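Quick one, tokens below:
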């Protein structure tokens, strides 16, 4: 049976008090709506249909074309919202799954349970319910003596008795497609001026048809985000879930409460993550590495047996056996080959550092190609920018740069050459020569065995 999902996201999210639409607020670096969309994709295998309204253009441009968008011009309620999807619904659809974009913790398995319940239901709809100690704002599920669902009563319309009911409507449903489209127009306007999707329960029951309820196993999955307190709660729960997954797959996380790993990150076995560390975006960390404390890694690849402390690594490649920090910064296009050592207060941008090269103290290397086993003395700077353009610095294998060498790019330092402390290099340096002064000049040749 073909199932298509409809994800509701037209609401303004007034209580977020934000210029950004609620569903675009990031959780662990990803817009909130992505979580609901991914869960829907995982169970239906197809493109979700998303009902957008408030700042629809912004929502579309951020979430991209993995979604079919429909626009709800006026927010006339959840029933009206679902109705907008009818025109774009693939004809072959047997079942329609409805979920909310502001529930980022729902797992695909839970959605699969609702679809499975409906596949076995002779009646037209199944829904997810949840037992809540504090049912703040949720619609209550009213059941008959025989346990079947009789109605959903919205909190605002509920009697004192009904408000005591702990079983709530989670806001996730699966419908027989044909029945859904023929029944939506039968919903009456509520006293609040909305068409409630939940009224379909009453409509089905009046027809003598069965509504199935699936009780959610873990209420935490149904944390809905309406304000920034909920946003923090959802982020915390998600973080906990991700950290647990990595710990169970062989990663040591010394302080899970203080470790922030994004949903797309990959980490190898026996790696240790120390506190106040953030791994974000499409970061990959290999095996047996130690990351942190106080480290941010974003969209970077880190190899095996690396150690990175109190540093920031962005959009960079770090091969095996590299150690970095404390207090260094790798920026876009930095690539460190095996066994490179980066100490403190160093910055690398758009530069390759060859195997075994060492850069221990307060240096800037930008727009450079550096060979193997190069020693970059304390305070070495590539002067790569002339105010208009960036220029390249090339340093060949086994070069020794004395402390405080300034390399005025474009410039090239030949294999095995050395500079003295404070050299200002404004012309290419020949291989195996010693250069000193301002501007640097050759004072002697170097024996290759030096
Ligand atoms: C809804 C349910 C309630 C359930 C709760 C679970 C109804 C009438 N009530 O209430 O029983 O317990 O969800 O969270 O459905 N939306 C639109 N267009 C609209 C109105 C809403 O797209 O015109 C979207 C919202 O952006 C949101 C979702 O539908 O993603 C739910 O709407 P919301 O107003 O939050 O419904 P609740 O009052 O929470
Ligand atoms: Ca809600």
């Amino acid at each position: 049976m073909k199932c298509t999902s409809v994800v509701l996201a037209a609401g303004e999210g007034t209580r977020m008090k934000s210029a950004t639409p609620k569903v675009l607020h990031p959780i662990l670096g990803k817009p909130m709506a992505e979580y609901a969309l991914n869960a829907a994709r995982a169970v239906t295998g197809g493109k979700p249909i998303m009902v957008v309204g408030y700042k629809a253009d912004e929502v579309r441009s951020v979430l991209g074309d993995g979604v079919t968008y429909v626009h709800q011009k006026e927010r006339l309620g959840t029933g009206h919202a679902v109705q907008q999807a009818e025109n774009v619904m693939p004809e072959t659809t047997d079942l329609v799954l409805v979920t909310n974009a502001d529930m980022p913790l729902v797992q695909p398995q839970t959605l699969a349970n609702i679809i499975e319940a409906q596949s076995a239901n002779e009646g037209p709809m199944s829904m997810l319910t949840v037992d809540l100690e504090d049912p703040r704002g949720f619609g209550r599920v009213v059941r008959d003596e025989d346990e079947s669902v009789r109605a959903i009563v919205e909190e605002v319309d509920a009697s004192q008795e009904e408000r005591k009911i702990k079983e709530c409507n989670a806001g996730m449903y699966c419908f027989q497609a044909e029945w859904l489209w023929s029944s939506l127009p039968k919903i009456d306007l509520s006293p609040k001026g909305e068409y409630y999707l939940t009224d379909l329960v009453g409509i089905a029951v009046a027809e003598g048809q069965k509504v199935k309820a699936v009780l959610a196993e873990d209420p935490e999955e149904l944390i809905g985000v309406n304000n920034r307190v909920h946003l923090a709660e959802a982020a915390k729960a998600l973080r906990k879930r991700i950290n647990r997954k990595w710990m169970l797959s062989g990663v040591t996380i010394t302080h899970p409460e203080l470790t922030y790993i994004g949903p797309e990150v990959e980490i190898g076995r026996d790696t240790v993550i120390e506190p106040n560390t953030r791994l974000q975006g499409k970061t990959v960390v290999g095996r047996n590495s130690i990351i942190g404390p106080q480290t941010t890694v974003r969209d970077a690849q880190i190899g095996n047996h690396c150690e990175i402390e109190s540093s920031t690594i962005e959009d960079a490649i770090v091969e095996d056996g590299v150690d970095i920090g404390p207090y260094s910064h790798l920026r876009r296009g930095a690539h460190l080959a095996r066994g490179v050592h980066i100490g403190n207060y160093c910055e690398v941008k758009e530069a390759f550092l060859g195997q075994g090269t060492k850069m221990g103290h307060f240096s800037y290397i930008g727009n450079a190609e550096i060979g193997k086993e190069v020693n970059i003395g304390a305070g070495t700077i590539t002067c790569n920018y002339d105010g208009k353009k960036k220029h390249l610095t090339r340093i060949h294998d086994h070069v020794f740069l004395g402390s405080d060498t300034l390399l005025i790019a474009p410039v090239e330092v030949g294999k095995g050459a050395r500079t003295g402390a404070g050299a200002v290099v404004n012309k290419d340096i020949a291989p195996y020569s010693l250069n000193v002064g301002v501007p640097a000049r050759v004072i002697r040749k170097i024996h290759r065995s030096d």
